[in-house]
């Protein structure tokens, strides 16, 4: 039985959320399924409004000029939507991994992009520091957590221009001053809900400044004016995201989950550092609390180790195909006990070897 899900997504959710979600599929509104009611009906409009409000509340951004949207097309659509809505002349991007690289590629379709810093030549195993953000650019874009290589920005610059951040793989996992950001986006499928919706939190006053015509579906202002219901929203993904945010709020919010996430990260990284059979991939100071990447020092032990963790009920530990090795993804809903189970297997391997 697969008991401990370390998969990089999608998606690990609290069991209580899964339970409520499955009940809503059978009976959400007086015998009707969540999947068959109108998205314009009051019960679903309430869900959407609650989801938008909870996102702002958890991030501490209520009443500060931000709007929350639940859009479709994944975080990948945000790569181009950000550029379409904000890029007039030039933008600065911090290149910290595969996803930043893809965001840069999409934005380049529309205009000039300057990489303020990049760790590409080092296999993205660190976060560049000491870079400068030009004051006359349209915006600065960064990726808070590098899901594939396992690095995480521990601090953010005081940007003189609007700061846009892809928080797909660490949204709601740690306390930050979210008001430093003018636009945050995150695919739901790591810390929030099923794949199919993307949270966008945008400060309204940065919009409407580009000269190009923006197709309606790509225009944040259109989605804001329609209360995130310009077209049929992904009702199930939004509902489950709302349940997960409610779960997080009841738990004590981001502060409470951050403490758990730090315990989990300390446990796995101390094993990686103390156990001579393993080696961490990324530099210590930039290690991600969400995705711990590591390799075996001796590849001959791979077969034994793989059999051991599978036997212990662990799932999804293989590294991304572009990196190899192992990746333990420890999103909000993964328990400390699951990390303990993995660490036990790692130390058992040491005693066997
Ligand atoms: N950005 C980051 C940091 C990610 O981890 C991912 C997917 O894992 C994406 C963007 C792409 O998200 P999507 O598949 O929703 O387009």
TrEMBL record:
Q: Any signal peptide, and if so, which residues?
A: none
Q: Does the keyword Cytoplasm apply?
A: yes
| Cofactor annotation comment | Binds 1 pyridoxal phosphate per subunit.
Question: Which residue numbers delimit the Aminotransferase class V domain?
Answer: 5-342
Q: What is its EC number?
A: 2.6.1.52
* Function field: Catalyzes the reversible conversion of 3-phosphohydroxypyruvate to phosphoserine and of 3-hydroxy-2-oxo-4-phosphonooxybutanoate to phosphohydroxythreonine.
The molecule here is called Phosphoserine aminotransferase
**Source species, please?**
Winogradskyella litorisediminis
The gene from which this protein is expressed is: serC
